[in-house]
Structures are given as structure tokens and as C-alpha cells.
Specification:
Layout lengths: L1 H10 L5 E6 L5 E6 L11 E5 L4 H7 L4 H7 L3 E3 L2 H10 L13 H12 L5 H12 L3 H5 L20 H15 L7 E5 L5 H10 L2 E6 L2 H14 L5 E5 L9 E7 L10 H11 E14 L4 H5 L4 H5 L9 H11 L3 E7 L1 H17 L1 H6 L4 H19 L3 E9 L11
Parallel strand pairs: 1-3, 5-6, 5-8, 6-7, 8-9
Antiparallel strand pairs: 1-2, 3-4, 9-11, 10-11
Helix pairs in contact: 1-2, 3-17, 4-17, 9-10, 11-14, 15-17
């Protein structure tokens, strides 16, 4: 029970919120203090221990051990998002690195992550590992538009469908999209933006994806919408595309680029834009003060959900754009709190459809992994560890002399 005592010693450092451990014999132990001014949960979040192997896993594993032990069924909780928010708020007090244990596990995780570099072949494998799981599985928790990115909720009563429609409209507004323009979409998902741009503005949209499942679904969707003459779905890496476009749109694809390729990504966007054209990017970001540790480790999302991903900070995005291009940073807006709501809805919908997910051939472990994924990310956005920005970059227009203005 030494591992349990050491874990409890760390948990005694909880400052913001209360955590109640419930053991297999029915006994319990309380950690932490009530949140100031009742700003967070009013009652302790319960963590029920199902197997005592949880404690050596937490102690000797890496930072991903809590999530892995949840997937393994070692523990459960009355409210997973609230528990993960509690841990996020107390991150500086609960750092297992301080006990100098788990070094090997962290090194192995980091090494495996480095093997998943986003070369052209690596990007194809990394994207396929997530997005080619099953279109039917994704349809069980996404809204009818199959939009898999942060929505924008005008009111607390807005439905997920309404909020995703609002987000797509906002991307079009930010881009100043005009009828008949040529748009390149890098990372088109299941085609919701492309169909909207084609139907509402008559735009010619070239859509890039590396997911065969997404491409097949998007092509059927384009055909059903009657816009085959306007939308072209391509299984193509963004680095290989040719041509010139009035707008480049990239909604939450930049996280799959990888830090070492960010400058190339922005250069490609600039090269493909006509003078005066705009890039509209929706990007998930991490707090800048977390970047040094993030670069040296491998988190649970990188290991189990999005292999090869890299979530940049806002500051890194500005730096890369400035260093690599002449693009002008025109506009930005932060919508991270909307992502907490989006993820909460996805998680609830996924949980409600768990039997249907299982009927598709997915295991109980897979279901727990995705429940943890939604809760983990919701906690990140709710506590401000993560944010989402909609960014507008512009390529300088040419003067009549042909010079860049």
C-alpha cells in the first residue's frame, strides 16, 4: 500500500475543490477544501476505486496513467468532467514529476510520439487512425451536419445543430466570402462547410482530406446537395496542392500539422492565395506557459486519440506567421468557452448512444476511452488550459504597378 500512501500524500495538496475517494469495502477518504465563494462544485466529486492496482499505475506511470486506468476500469466517478476540472485547477499541486517516479514511462511515451511525425506518409497514418474509425460511430454523437469542431452558441438554449450552423456562418463572415469565389478547404471533415459555401454563395470549393472514410461520405453529401459542379473532394496532402484561391479555410486542422511543419503550412497557405486573399483558421491553442513541458512530454490525447498532434499556443502561431510569411494578421476572436459546451454535448450524446457504439463492434474499453476524451477536453477548455481562436490572415494586394501594397 506504499503507492497508495504516496498518491494520497500528493492529493493532500488539493487547494481548490474537494475529492472523495470511495474504496471497494465502502470506506472513504476526503481530500481538498471547498472552492472559494462556491465558484466551483458545491459537493465533493466522488472517485470510486474498483481495483487497487490504480495506485501503482498512477505512481509509476506517466501523466497519461489516470486516463489509462479509467479505460482499464480501475476507477469510476459520479461526474468525470467535474473530476477532471478539479485536477486541472490543481495541476500545479498534483505534479507526479515531483516524486521523480515514472521517468521511464514518460520517456517511452515521448519516444513513441516522436515516431508519429507528420511527414506526408505519417500524416496519412495519423489521420486515418482517428477519422477512419467509422462514419456511423461519429454520426451517433455529432449533429446532423457532421461538423466535428467547436460550435458557437448564441444562447444557452441553442441546439448543437444551430450552434454548428452559426459557427460555419461566422467562418464565412470572417472570410468576407463573396459569390463565386474559389475556396480551398484544408481538412474538410465530412463536408459541412463546403456544401454551405457552395449552396449559399455559389463558391467553387476544393476540399482536402487524408481520411478515406470522410472523403467517401463527403462526396455522397455533395452529390445529395446537388453541388457536384462546385465542390471537389480530394484525398490530397495540403503540401501537394496546386492552383490559386481567393480564400483558404482550415477549421481545426492545424493541430494535425506538427510544430516542425507549422511554418511550411503557413507558407503553403500564402502561396496558394491570390493577392488580397484571406486565410481563415480555427485553431485550438494551449496556454503558452505550458509549452515547454508540453514539447518534452506526450499527453493522453497525443497517445490515445490524435497521434502526431501538436496543439500550439497563440503566441507560437503569431511567431510562425511572422517568421515564415508576409501574411497580415487581420482579425481574431476567442471562442474556447463554446468548446466546453460543445464537448459536454458530444460526451452526453456519446454516452447515451454507448449501446449503439458497442453494436458497431467497439469494445467497452473503446467507449470508456472516448468518454474520457470528451471529459478531458471539456475540462481543458472550461478551466482555460485550452482555448480556440478564429483567425483571419490576409495576403497583401498588388498595386497597379504589380508591387505588393
Amino acid at each position: 500500500r506504499l503507492s497508495m500512501r504516496l498518491v494520497f500524500k500528493l492529493l493532500e495538496q488539493l487547494k481548490d475543490g474537494e475529492l472523495k475517494f470511495v474504496f471497494p469495502d465502502g470506506s472513504s477518504r476526503l481530500f481538498g477544501t471547498p472552492s472559494p465563494n462556491g465558484s466551483q462544485q458545491c459537493t465533493p466529486v466522488e472517485l470510486t476505486v474498483k481495483h487497487y492496482r490504480l495506485f501503482p499505475k498512477l505512481l509509476f506511470g506517466s501523466e497519461v496513467a489516470a486516463g489509462e486506468s479509467y479505460v482499464d476500469g480501475d476507477w469510476t466517478t459520479t461526474d468525470l468532467p467535474e473530476l477532471l476540472k478539479l485536477f486541472a485547477r490543481n495541476k500545479k499541486y498534483l505534479n507526479l514529476r515531483t516524486v521523480k517516479i515514472g521517468v521511464l514511462a514518460r520517456a517511452v511515451d515521448r519516444f513513441l510520439h516522436l515516431l508519429r511525425r507528420n511527414t506526408k506518409g505519417g500524416s496519412k497514418r495519423n489521420i486515418s487512425a482517428h477519422y477512419d474509425l467509422s462514419n456511423e460511430m461519429f454520426s451517433l454523437f455529432l449533429d446532423n451536419s457532421m461538423t466535428y469542431s467547436c460550435a458557437i452558441f448564441d444562447t444557452e438554449d441553442s441546439s448543437l445543430e444551430e450552434a454548428q450552423e452559426r459557427k460555419l456562418s461566422e467562418v464565412l463572415r470572417l472570410g468576407g466570402v463573396e459569390p463565386g469565389q474559389r475556396i480551398l478547404e484544408i481538412g474538410c471533415g465530412w463536408g459541412s462547410f463546403a456544401v454551405k459555401a457552395a449552396k449559399e454563395f455559389g463558391c467553387h470549393v476544393t476540399c482536402l482530406t487524408l481520411s478515406e472514410e470522410q472523403a467517401e461520405f463527403a462526396r455522397e453529401r455533395v452529390k445529395a446537395a446537388g453541388v457536384e459542379n462546385l465542390v471537389d473532394i480530394q484525398l490530397t496532402d495540403y503540401r501537394d496542392i496546386k492552383g490559386q484561391f481567393d480564400r483558404v479555410v482550415s477549421i481545426e486542422m492545424i493541430e494535425a500539422v506538427g510544430e516542425e511543419y507549422l511554418e511550411e503550412y503557413f507558407r503553403v497557405c500564402e502561396r496558394l492565395l491570390n493577392p488580397g486573399g484571406r486565410v481563415i483558421i480555427q485553431a485550438i491553442t494551449l496556454k503558452h506557459e505550458r509549452m515547454e513541458l508540453y514539447r518534452r512530454s506526450c499527453d493522453w490525447i497525443q497517445k490515445h486519440i490524435f497521434p502526431g498532434c501538436f496543439v500550439p499556443s497563440y503566441e507560437i502561431l503569431r511567431e510562425k506567421v511572422k517568421n515564415a510569411t508576409s501574411l497580415v494578421w487581420k482579425e481574431e476572436q476567442a471562442i474556447g468557452q463554446h468548446y466546453a459546451t460543445t464537448l459536454s454535448l458530444w460526451g452526453k450524446r456519446f454516452l447515451a448512444k454507448a449501446p449503439a457504439v458497442q453494436s458497431l463492434g467497439f469494445s467497452d474499453e473503446f467507449i470508456r476511452k472516448w468518454i474520457y476524451y470528451f471529459g478531458y477536453c471539456e475540462a481543458g477548455f472550461d478551466t482555460g488550459e485550452l482555448n480556440t481562436y478564429q483567425l483571419v490572415l490576409e495576403k497583401p494586394a498588388l498595386e497597379k504597378s504589380g508591387r505588393v501594397s
